[in-house]
Request: fold
Amino acid sequence: MTDPDRVIHEPARLRIMMILSGVDTVDFSFLVSTLGLTKGNISSHMSRLEQAGYVEVRKSFNGKIPHTDYRLTAPGHEALADYWSALDQIRGVSDGEKE
Reply:
């Protein structure tokens, strides 16, 4: 049995990964308003996800205003799929089996 990825398993990071899995890119402001976490907390979690190679961070400027976009990388998509598979193993659900 495979253990769930500890990087993803933290609740705030799992929420971030789930949001990113459903879109092409998301900006920092959207995450702040959607997640209800502090800016520092989001930045900290994003740094951890970026270090793991799961999230790509793109920083730019709109005029003089900093703008940050995030997207899930291919390894991030794969890690999230593996995470769900690990949870299914723990729950005893096999491929093709429905509850």
Observations:
- DSSP finds five helices and three strands in the chain.
- The beta strands are 26-27, 55-62, 65-72.
- Helices lie at 6-9, 11-21, 28-35, 39-51, 74-91.
- The chain has one domain: 6-89.
